[in-house]
Design goal:
There is one protein chain. The chain contains 20 helices and 16 strands. It is α/β, with parallel strands linked by helices and 472 residues long. It has a seven-stranded mixed beta sheet with strand order 7-6-12-13-14-11-15, with helices on both faces.
Length: 472
């Protein structure tokens, strides 16, 4: 059988690409190495029976706001969003707690002297949101989007350290710095401000919700819709060479660029140097999941009401930590992103029990055990936390590739964000999803708009592939 399209990898981007192709009437096969679909959105009992942990992504501001997810009938297939009262809480060492809420007014009121400046910035981004969705959640800075619109969005390419200096208060600077640190880059680098402001604005528009039952439910919904459209999925089959695939008009790969180069064989070798000039992987993460006997005993109730926590000090400490990790050093005090979905979604744990999810940035490939350092940071704001722990599962950066080969060295973001990657993709062609090999496309988070469970990399790669299919 000749398929119109074969997709390698059943993560959120691969499944989204497959759905878009199937909706267009293309015969589509998805091939997945694992026995189940999921990629960066799997949920599993990592600690004890009945405790359901998100293996990778857990809070989804960009998922809830994704243009393609909003269009697809995923609620019909069981997708439900869970919204905590507050998206984010960031405690500071002086006892202050900065809170990101859906309400711009309530959030800005907690920023003291910076209330007006913060509100104006967020409201300005809100006014530009259609343009942001077109560019930052699409092929970023596309020539087709118009030069004037790109110039207006240019301030989002600034370093977060620049924008933080425009604030007067430690609270506002730390709120922006913590969100910008999701870029896994030093805050002095370009585009970090954009990451911070995008997450803040998305928090106000969509919240930072969890998926009811775990992130797996999102990809399960994509899978069900895809098969209802007539698509086929083959699991438990690892592809190491594209020659192993059945004949098709196009191939889309939801994999890291290096893995696709290997699959291309001799053709890939000819393109390896081109990828190396404009693409590289970034630092890794050390991930932890806990099964708890009761909720985390935060000292401040505002932290109990937040889905996500940023721990690790103020903007200065976060900037120092991210700089150290970038230079290959382990920080004495880590920056920790934590989430507590079971407080708002009882299906995550047995009655009375709770889960906690967290990660911290580390140098690529690090095997250092960060559990003690991370738990010390939690204890700083929740004395007695250790007494609630029933079990803990850890995954160092050095072991991420054994779970998912796309996470090279523990890099869960698909590579370092840079201008060439945003403009032209890892392979440096006119299309950021092209590879230079006719009919072969990359649709992973290494392509624009980058990391996050939003499916837009898959969506845009599928649009490019459809053009090839229709042209014959």
């Amino acid at each position: 059988m000749l398929y119109d399209a074969v997709v390698v990898g059943a993560g959120p981007n691969g499944l989204t690409a497959a759905v878009v192709l199937a909706e267009a009437g293309c015969s589509t096969l998805v091939v997945e190495a694992w026995e189940t679909v999921g990629g960066g959105s799997r949920t599993a009992e990592l600690t004890l029976g009945g405790f359901r942990h998100d293996v990778c992504a857990t809070a989804h501001p960009l998922g809830r706001g994704s243009p393609i997810f909003r269009r697809l009938p995923l609620a019909r297939y069981g997708l439900r969003w869970v919204h905590p009262p507050a998206a984010l809480a960031h405690p500071l060492d002086n006892g202050e707690v900065v809170v990101l809420r859906r309400s711009i007014q309530e959030t800005s009121e907690g920023l003291g002297a910076d209330a007006v400046h913060y509100r104006r910035r967020i409201e300005g981004i809100n006014r530009m949101w259609p343009r942001i969705e077109d560019r930052l959640l699409g092929p970023a800075l596309s020539v087709r989007s118009g030069l004037l619109g790109n110039v207006k969005l240019g301030h989002l390419a600034r370093p977060a350290s620049w924008d933080a200096r425009r604030f007067k208060s430690r609270a506002a600077r730390s709120l922006l710095a913590g969100c910008a640190a999701h870029s896994v880059m030093p805050l002095e680098r370009l585009f970090t401000a954009g990451v911070g402001w995008l997450l803040l604005a998305a928090g106000h528009r969509y919240g930072w919700p969890f998926v009811s039952g775990g992130s797996q439910a999102l990809v399960d919904a994509l899978e069900s819709y895809f098969t209802d459209l007539g698509g086929e999925i083959e699991t438990g089959r690892r592809i190491t060479d594209l020659a192993q695939l059945p004949p098709s008009r196009v191939v889309l790969a939801d994999v890291a660029p290096g893995a696709l180069i290997d699959m291309l064989g001799e053709e890939g070798s000819a393109r390896k140097a081109r990828v190396g000039r404009g693409f590289r992987h970034g630092p890794g993460v050390f991930k932890l999941d806990w099964a708890l006997s009761r909720p985390v005993p935060w000292t401040d109730d505002r932290m109990a009401m937040a889905g996500v926590l940023h721990l690790g000090g103020d903007h200065r400490q976060i900037a120092l930590t991210e700089r150290m990790v970038w230079r290959g050093r382990i920080p004495d005090r880590p920056f920790v992103v934590a989430a507590q979905p079971s407080r708002f979604d009882p299906s995550r744990a047995p009655e009375g029990g709770h889960t906690l999810w967290a990660y911290t940035h580390v140098p690529a490939g690090s095997s250092v055990d960060m559990r003690a350092a991370v738990e010390a940071e939690i204890e700083r704001h929740a004395p007695g936390f250790s007494e609630t722990v029933l079990a803990c599962h850890t995954l160092p950066a050095s072991q991420w590739e054994s779970y998912n080969p796309n996470y090279v060295g523990g890099d869960i973001g698909g590579g370092v964000m840079g201008l060439r990657r945003l403009l032209r993709g890892p392979f440096g062609g006119w299309s950021p999803y092209g590879t230079g090999v006719d009919g072969v496309y990359l649709c992973s988070s290494s392509t624009p708009p980058g990391a996050g469970v939003h499916g837009m990399c898959g969506y845009h790669a599928a649009q490019a592939a459809l053009g090839r299919i229709k042209s014959g």
